[in-house]
Amino acid sequence: MFNAVITTCSDAMSSFMALLFQLASAVGLPYYGMAIILFTIVIKICLYPLTWKQTRSMRRMAELQPKMQELQKKFANDKQKLNQKMMELYSKENVNPYSGCLPILVQIPILYIFYSTLRTFPYGEDASAWFFGYHLPTTYGWNDYLHWPLPVLVGVSVYVSSKISMAINKPPEVKTAKGKKLPPPPNPAEKTQKMMLTIMPFFLAYICFSLPSGMGFYFVTMNFVSALQSYYINRKLRRETERRQEAIAAQEAKKREKAEEPEEGAAELEKPEKPVKTVKTVKSRKTMKLKESKTPSKT
Asked: Which of 30, 212, 262, 290 could hold 118 in an S-S bridge, CB 3.0 to 4.6 Å?
């Protein structure tokens, strides 16, 4: 049953690759290597919503670290209560801590079907199955030194892509209501990311020696497009964070204005009242002056 499903999916992917090959041929690039590059770009576009949720969730988790540490200190002796408060915090902040696994889980069956497609590639005898000196369905292994550059390029692309993603996905500086800059919150996944940055390039380069060369072009394109997506998502998240901080600052300003209103009213009540001159006194003074002017002066 499983083999039948994989065979059906591989046939469908072969047909899709033939369609992409026709598109590449229409622009003067009749190579199945170009079809693999287009296929990788299509996959990354389809996975963009999951990648956006993953990156946004990781950023929000990093921003929530101070609150999470407070809860861990407060409920250090009650793990059940701690888990309950953590889930309430995630729900309140609209954060899913498990969304980071979704893009990886979705790509695993795609990779396996793509690998099966290359192993039974129906167009392997065509000249278009060659790309930059590599026969796409062929596994060259360790003994063919002339084809080492592709696995090495895979490892380098993994390292560069991960380095760029770590650099641009750092949480932005947080500003207080007075405009004072605070240091970014600690990122609990930073140690894991550094470890993966060291291990993954060597691991994928090693794996590529035992895979069809078409998988190498898939990985290189995937890493390049991932770096571009990370840059775009980071800019989008920074704008979102700035809007959220502006909204918080506006709310705090309104609270301060409401708090200052009673004090201003009390200050006005405490002001001494100025003496008010009545109309009668003004009129009496005028009449006195008139009487004095009418009376004849004694010579």
From this structure: 212
152 and 209 in contact (C-beta within 8 Å)? no
Q: How many separate domains does the chain show?
A: 1
Is residue 54 in some structural domain? yes
Question: Which domain range does residue 163 map to?
Answer: 2-257
The residue among 107, 104, 121 whose CA lies nearest residue 17 is 121
39: pLDDT strictly greater than 50: yes
- Say whether pLDDT at 204 is over 80: yes
What's the token pair of residue 127?
């000249």
Predicted confidence (pLDDT) at residue 291 exceeds the cutoff of 70:
no
Statement: the pTM of the whole predicted model exceeds 0.85: no
What is the phi-psi region of residue 141: left when phi exceeds 0, alpha when psi lies from -120 to 50, beta otherwise? Answer: left
Determine, yes or no, domain membership for 142: yes
79-106: pLDDT as tens digits: 888 888 888 887 787 777 766 677 778 8
CB neighbours of residue 42 within 10 Å: 12
Let me know if residue 90 belongs to a domain: yes
| Contact (CB, 8 A) for 45 and 103 | no
Q: Give the contacts of 227 (CB within 8 A, at least 6 positions apart).
A: 160, 161, 164, 165
Measured CA to CA, the distance from residue 86 to residue 76 in angstroms comes to 12
- Give the C-alpha distances (Å, rounded to integers) separating 277 from 68, 163, 238, 274, 291: 67, 81, 64, 10, 22
Domain for residue 263, yes or no?
Answer: no
